[in-house]
Amino acid sequence: MSEKQMTNDDKIMLLKSQIENREKNLKVKKKFTPETNCSLEFEGVRYNLHASQKDQLTNLLIRLTMYEMAVEKLGLENEYIISGYSVGQWIKDIKLRLEIIKYEEEDRNLKDLKKKLENLLSHEKQVELAIDDLAKLIK
After folding, report:
1. I want to staple 87 with a disulfide (CB 3.0 to 4.6 A). Which of 42, 68, 109, 125 is the partner?
2. Measured in whole angstroms, how far is the alpha carbon of residue 31 from the centre of its chain?
3. What whole-number distance in Å separates Cα of residue 90 and Cα of residue 104?
4. Which among 112, 91, 109, 125 is positioned nearest to 12, based on CA atoms?
5. What is the residue extent of each domain of the chain?
């Protein structure tokens, strides 16, 4: 049983290491500094970019992109304003908000995975890691 625990512990530590590498490689969280006021009234519906879900924002981005293509084709870039801002400004803010949501989801998933793996470690391995952490603090 002890040998099986060691192999499981080794696998868990390897997976934990891979998760830590993914956490390090995760792009730095951007700060949401919008160009707009984040309150968009579009096609009869009011959207708050801060409160909208990922699927709502994605749908809105697709629809606004179609509008942007039409505006460019018609040469109305400077004239066509929605809720006080250009279509391009809305698109930029929505893309940034989606990037932040994606970052937060990935960060949360990695933390959840790491916690689940730590809970699977044998008691002996958990004690060993706790002792190692304490030794680092003492040095």
Report:
1. 68
2. 12
3. 21
4. 125
5. 19-138
